[in-house]
Amino acid sequence: MRLLLVDDEKRLVGPLAYILRKNNYGVDLAYNGETGQAMAETGVYDLIVLDRMLPYKEGVEVLKDLRNKGIMTPIILLTAKDSVEDRIDGLDAGADDYLIKPFSTGELLARIRALARRKGVQITGDRIEVFGLVLDPLLCEVSYGTDSVKLTLKESLLLELFMRNPNQVITKDQLLDRVWGLDSDVELSNVEVYIYFLRKKIKFKCFSIETIRGVGYCLKGIKKSAL
Which GO terms describe its cellular component (predicted)? Predict the structure, then answer.
């Protein structure tokens, strides 16, 4: 899962990004509203954590512009303002959740998991389940029934992206941006290599990663009757 963290408080952002990455989230950072909005408009993020008080462009204005442009990525709005009117203002602008500073990292992680419960994907604690396939991103381990397979971090991030978006075509560019990052110099051929690794390593016959020629890949379930 790839997150965008937009906040100008570098003393907060550094440790928070470290904790998020320790929990196997991919994290990109922006320190002002204009940069944050430009990065958010790429559409490569699964969730955005957006501070309200930002240089150059205030967080609520960024939020309104994103929603007006059709960017529907879940957004958690951070703020030191705790009045009812401020919360209403943020939620009416399009925020999916609202977190008041100071906050515990445990609460932020819980709210991120809550917003990730979408598209028919079952999330229990830190585990993700779809088509009977269960992924534990923290352990980089995938299982089906009593059988389990250890993955590398990149393999786990790649599979997590598929499992959070079952039956949806994900382009190679999207896979590259979300797993390796916007600033990565990794080539598209690396995506093909890691797809090969996943297919070779995970032998469970409950799913398939189908190639959509000329576009990308799609995770689909296989019904038991078809096994």
Answer: cytosol; protein-DNA complex
pLDDT of 18-75, one tens digit each? 988 888 788 889 999 999 999 998 877 889 999 999 999 999 999 999 999 888 889 9
38 plus 85 within the same structural domain? yes
Residue 227: inside a domain: no
Element (H, E) at 29: strand 26-30
For 79-122, write each residue's pLDDT tens digit. Answer: 887 777 777 888 888 899 988 888 888 899 988 888 876 545 55
106 with 138, same domain: the answer is no
Structural Rg of the chain based on CA atoms: 18
Distance CA 59, CA 64 (A): 9
CATH number assigned to the domain comprising residue 30: 3.40.50.2300
Give residue 207's domain range.
128-221
